[in-house]
Amino acid sequence: MLIVAGLALFWLVAVFFRLGYLQLIEHADYLARAQRQQQRTIEITPKRGAIYDRNMHPLAMSVQVDSAFAVPAEIGANLPMAARLLSGVLGIPQDVLEARLQTSSSFVWIARKLPPDKAEAVRALNLKGVYFQKENQRFYPKRELAAHVLGFVDVDEKGLGGIEYELDSRIRGKNEKIVVMSDAKQRWFDGGLAQRGSGADVVLTIDEKIQYIAQRELAAAIAKTHAMAGTVIVQNPNNGEILALANQPTFNPNAANEAKQEARMDRAVSAIYEPGSTFKLITLAAALDQHVAQPGEVINCENGAVYIAGHRIRDHKPFGLLTVAGILAQSSDVGAIKIALRLGAPKFYDYIRAFGFGRQTGIELPAESRGILRRLENWSPISIGSISMGQEVGVTPVQLVTAVSAIANGGLLYKPHIVEELRKGNEVLPGEGDIGPSEPKRIIQPETAATLRRLMEGVILDGTGKLARLDGWTAAGKTGSAQKIDPATGRYSPTQLIASFSGFAPINNPAVTILVSLDSPVGEHEGGQVAAPVFKRIAEQVLAYLDVPRDVPLSPKLLQAAYHSSREPDSASLEDFTPADFSFQPETPEKAAHGADLQLKEPAVTVALDQGGDIAVPDFSGKTMREVTQACLRLGLDPMLVGSGLAVDQAPTAGTKVRRGARITVRFGTASSARAARFGSGSGQ
């Protein structure tokens, strides 16, 4: 018994000393080894703030997706087989996966941010040592809608373009670290999450419906004219807000790495071009403001040619005597040169700078160009003549639309801005630097702006911009056809041009300024031929959507002709460019009471072109222009709105099945007006 007791005591003492050694002397070493075996700390991408349009519709958000990682030590000798199986599912070469799995024995990313189908396929393999971790991934639910404004991010959620890049430090949250643990059977589970605050949400001035209209019409114009590229900007001239900014070619920010570099370029702020005749607005604004010219004054345009410093400059067509108003309406180069010579180079240069050319506007988008404007001392003797008609000067679309807005609003230059506010939950965060609006600067007198607006109206009524004339609203603008430099010869090309139109509507109380620019259209290539009609289509839809009151009565004959005319040839190209492409979900339109007992007769041409689809035309009776426009845009229909007030008649009738892109004519008025007139029931009716 004593021997047994002694052995037991010796064993207990040995165990005690061994436990003491392990717990006290070797504690730190074994704790570290246990943590290495049981825990993994993974740094995952932070949650970025969302980006909304002005009506709080989400344009960019972060969603959680699965990322696959491996613990190679657990895979062991089965590593080649695991690599082969994963290669077949993920489409990654087997040798690449094997090399990746051999870089570490504890943790290796296999594939990050997997699509749901691939994540399920990997999970179905049930491979030992392969696990999943949730990460944040940027998602753009409207796809190409406002892609150049939003930008895109890389796999680590770092902004690489657009607002995502410009406000990356505000949108991007702090890095998150997650601890994953395994039990004795090597089953992995979440051990704990060190959450950091997400980034700030961004509310843009963009309206997604106006943005859709701009992108749709620009795409149609590109398809019709075969232009290399194009830009449309819609701005509120009264505060500088950008309501829409569209570029072609465009890209899907969900797959930005698959797009070409030129498709990701934001031409609205980065592309520099000679503005051509649209720059005559600046020439005349300066001359009228300095009282060196009057609208009714007659100027001899020398039958189409003028000499400056021994150089002969020819007009696009010979003109004799023209008033100052006629010079703008007919876009006479000689007339503009003569007016600029009266003004003088120093004053002219000061006004060009005052309108914002030659420097960045400060819009909250990256890679903005200053344009090209040489210092006054570097002007040659003929520079004043060239610049007066839009040559020897380089501008960006956002500079030009901002300058036209200053004319529209009475002479105040607002900084263009595309960010309305930053939010954290319901709290509005203070802006930093140049974010948001700023105080305007007066650059011309209100009387000068009012005179110039009337002259710009003449461009549309009697000049080169007749195709920009709106149905139901007054409008003012200026066409531009700027020759591009031919790289082969170093001279201006007779066929490669930038066709543009810049204008606003209505004249007395402008609601929108719109710029349309098409790069190198094929065939007809002048601004009044190809860009002005795009301005018209965009302006009519946007003004109706904004419920801007009509200030011009519609002729019944014009109404009848417009309804019975077939859709324009380029409208068919919109079939593949509908709200569905941007993940707009069609909603069931609200049913309204029938406010009229008369129906529009559906012409055969409309039936042939538009019917036979799967979209039921809603009943628009009693709805406002804004409600009708919103419903049509949701369904991918092309609204043609006539009159004012509430909807009293429509064609095709409610319930008719039509295709996407079909034109829907809706007449507005009072309930009694529905009984007073019918389409096609006699002249004047």
Description:
- There is one protein chain.
- 34% of the residues lie in helices and 22% in strands.
- The protein has 685 residues and is α+β, with helices and mostly antiparallel strands.
- Strands 2, 3, 4, 5, 8, 16 and 17 form a seven-stranded mixed β-sheet that branches. Strands 10-9-21-20-19 form a five-stranded antiparallel β-sheet, with helices on both faces.
- A hairpin with a 2-residue loop joins strand 12 (305-308) and strand 13.
- The longest helix has 24 residues, at 2-25.
- The chain is elongated and about 135 Å long.
- The relative contact order is 0.09.
- The model is unreliable at 565-609 and 674-685 (pLDDT under 50).
Q: Layout of SSEs?
A:
Blueprint: H1 2-25, H2 27-38, E1 39-44, E2 51-52, E3 58-70, H3 72-75, H4 79-90, H5 94-101, E4 108-111, H6 116-125, E5 130-139, H7 147-150, H8 162-166, H9 168-171, E6 176-182, E7 188-194, E8 201-204, H10 208-225, E9 229-235, E10 242-248, H11 261-264, H12 267-270, H13 280-289, E11 298-300, E12 305-308, E13 311-314, E14 321-323, H14 324-330, H15 333-343, H16 345-354, H17 383-388, H18 397-408, E15 412-413, E16 419-424, E17 427-429, E18 441-442, H19 446-462, E19 476-485, E20 492-505, E21 512-519, H20 527-530, H21 532-545, H22 556-564, H23 604-610, E22 611-616, H24 625-635, E23 638-643, E24 646-651, E25 657-658, E26 663-669, H25 673-676
Parallel strand pairs: 2-8, 23-26
Antiparallel strand pairs: 1-6, 2-3, 3-4, 3-5, 6-7, 8-16, 9-10, 9-21, 11-14, 12-13, 15-18, 16-17, 19-20, 20-21, 22-25, 24-26
